[in-house]
Amino acid sequence: MFETLSHFALQHYWWVIISLLASLLVFLFFVQGGQTLIFTLGKNELERAMLIGSLGHKWGLTFTTLVTFGGAFFASFPLFYSTSFGGAYWVWMIILFAFVIQAVAYEFRTKHVSYTHLTLPTIYSV
Question: Is the pTM of this model over 0.70?
Answer without folding.
Answer: no
